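Predict structure. Chain length: 132.
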Amino acid sequence: MTILFKKTLSFITLLLSVTFLNAQENDGPRESNNKTYFISDKGSISDVQPYIEALNNANLKNHRLKNKHYTIVFEGGLKVEVLSAREIAAAGWNVNPSDYPEQFELSRNEPVFALGPDNFIIEYHTSVTKHN
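Prediction complete.
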């Protein structure tokens, strides 16, 4: 490795963590196409059914806002509009809108979403930190 590369690595570390969005028992409602989310743009994805199956088995609570839609984007450009907590509560879903934020913090680092094996949603998170 070059000295410049080593110095760069000593100052900046790229962390990659993976989160699976599959819902676990008692962690909230399962999603439902056109009820708790909808696909607003298919991007370059020709078959959205595996995405729908994965989303229907997910809990998108960490990507839902209290009063407005939030868009998540998958590799390949597929865009999903996550309906607000207030909207799904009004439609009869067992959620408490006060448990959701009005907006996400500006420092929020949006993950990259991907469809994983067996139709699981994978979130790839990156963050850059400095080392002294």
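Summary: Residues 1-27 have pLDDT under 50 and may be disordered.
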